[in-house]
Amino acid sequence: MIGRISAVWARVELTLAAFLAVSITLLILLNVVTRSMGAALYWVDELAIYAMAWMTFLGASAALHHGQTVVVTALTDPLPPAMAKMAAKLVDVIVLAFALFMLWFCWRWYAPLELAKFGFDTEAFQGATFNFIYAEPTTTLGIPKFWIWMVMWIFALGATLHGIANLIGQGQKPQEKIA
User: Fold this and answer.
1) Where are the alpha helices (DSSP H) in the chain?
2) Burial of 176 from C-beta contacts in 10 A (0-12 / 13-18 / 19+)
3) Inter-residue contact 58 to 9 (CB < 8 Å)
4) What radius of gyration, in Å, describes the C-alpha atoms of the chain?
5) What is the rounded end-to-end Cα distance, in angstroms, of the chain?
6) What percent of the chain has pLDDT over 70?
7) Residues 159, 64: contact at Cβ < 8 Å?
8) What is the full DSSP assignment across 43-70?
9) What digits encode the pLDDT tens for the residues 148-170?
């Protein structure tokens, strides 16, 4: 069941990443056209950068599911098959540990229980914790940056799910080995 959930989540991640890739292309074309007309839309640059960041994190998480991450095999190729399999499991454990640390760091960064303790009053929260995550706006778009940074939560949750699926052997393995 974990493997199926991981596969569905990876499909959603790749669909969103593809949509963002198309959006980036259209935003850059819009930027070229408006600048050539002498009426640049400055928010387009910032939106394209955020779309690129989201696309990257979503694609990286999906790559964990599909087993398409960058691999250095100089150490594992000479190993006997049993030891190579153990090394692969060790990598899965490290990826899962990284994802769990990401979740923990996001929890500490966003501090949702502390925010709730202050009745979701961001100014009282900031005054008591000196955590200004909910106050910083984007430069040209004017929206709070914590919405942009939510991709960290999404990545951490996806990487955790894919890491668990890979660790218990229900994740997809790479189709072919690239030398």
Assistant:
1) 2-36, 42-66, 81-110, 112-117, 122-129, 145-148, 150-167
2) exposed
3) no
4) 20
5) 32
6) 94
7) yes
8) HHHHHHHHHHHHHHHHHHHHHHHHT-S-
9) 999 999 999 999 999 999 988 86
